[in-house]
Amino acid sequence: MRSLPIRPLALGAVVLSAFGLSACARSNQGADIPYVARDVSTLYMAAKQRLDRGQYKQAAALFDEVERQHPYSVWARRAQLMSAFSYYLNKDYTESIQSAQRFLAVHPGNRDAPYAYYLIALGYYEQITDVTRDQKITQQALDSLGELSRRYPNTRYAADARLKVDLVRDHLAGKEMEVGRFYGRRGQWLAASMRYRSVVDQFQTTSHAPEALMRLVEAYLNLGLRDEARKSAAVLGANYPGTEWYERAYELMGENPVLPPQAPQKPATEIDPVGT
Predict the structure, then answer these.
(1) Phi, psi of 191 (to 5 degrees)
(2) Model confidence at 12, in pLDDT bands (50, 70, 90)?
(3) pTM (2 decimals)?
(4) How many other C-beta atoms lie within 10 A of the C-beta of residue 81?
(5) Separation between Cα atoms, residue 120 and residue 113, nearest integer Å
(6) What is the pLDDT of residues 106-153, one digit of tens each?
(7) φ/ψ of residue 45, rounded to 5
(8) Closest CA to 120 of 143, 154, 90
């Protein structure tokens, strides 16, 4: 992140208001922050010092105070983004995302807008869970990374976002494969084939595409759709020859001769899912 300049403080600049500690503000984390009216540069400096010491939660609360006590100053704009950054470092991703979104709502054309979009994307990205869980956050990460790349394609943040997009897409494909294998283990081959087809159609550049094609061969054979199985095997052989997935698909095709016309009305010989 581009460092934000802090003007040196003149001697005697620290002037505490007569209001003292009579009122309290609550940070986004719910902690009580004693209200002490301070000049904006002093308050910003205090927040920056906490940030430098690794006291991210306290830093975020003080940056929020800058915005609250001096909402119309140039420091408030800086503090808003620094608050989002501090929350991110403290792994308070929801707070970080909200602070960055608030910054963009008020300052959409600011030169630091790309970084605000980047913080939002990172906030979602860091919350991605394993493929056995709901992937709503993963989709939000993909959408946010994509928006950053579209809006600011020539920034360093967009360059990193494009790398993360590939990782996120691979993760989403992994989720589809996980669900497809689940259906396959239960013998629900139509449902399984739809998940594998989704990977082939939407995530063909991910690492899961070869297995998805092999699983399609497996599912189609169990559904009695040998022609569809042959097509999937041909695509697999053309794009991923020599892989273990092609070898398995080849074996599956060899073990299943042409079926009589009535065979599609009932499952073919059961084939246990491979590698589940």
Answers:
(1) -65, -40
(2) very low
(3) 0.73
(4) 25
(5) 11
(6) 988 899 999 999 999 999 999 999 888 889 999 999 999 999 999 999
(7) -60, -40
(8) 143
What is the distance between the alpha carbons of residues 65 and 47, in angstroms, rounded to a whole number?
Answer: 9
CA distance 8 to 104: 28
Q: What is the pLDDT of residue 35?
A: 53
* Nearest to 42, CA basis, from 70, 23, 18, 21: 70
Give the residue from 128, 58, 46 showing the smallest Cα distance to 90: 58
Cα–Cα dist 88/57, whole Å? 10
**Can you say whether residue 91 is alpha, beta or left, with left for phi > 0 and alpha for psi between -120 and 50 degrees?**
left
Q: Are 4 and 78 in contact (CB under 8 A)?
A: yes
What mean pLDDT, rounded, does the chain reach? Answer: 82
Label each residue of the chain as H, E or C: CCCCCCCCCCCCCCCCCCCCCCCEEECCCCCEEECCCCCHHHHHHHHHHHHHCCCHHHHHHHHHHHHHHCCCCHHHHHHHHHHHHHHHHCCCHHHHHHHHHHHHHHCCCCCCHHHHHHHHHHHHHCCCCCCCCCCHHHHHHHHHHHHHHHHCCCCHHHHHHHHHHHHHHHHHHHHHHHHHHHHHHCCCHHHHHHHHHHHHHHCCCCCCHHHHHHHHHHHHHHCCCHHHHHHHHHHHHHHCCCCHHHHHHHHHHHCCCCCCCCHHHCCCCCCCCCCC
* pLDDT recorded at residue 169: 96
**Contact predicate 78/48, CB 8 Å:** no
Lowest mean pLDDT among 3-17, 199-213, 229-243: 3-17
pLDDT in tens, 209-246: 999 999 999 999 999 999 999 999 999 999 999 899 99
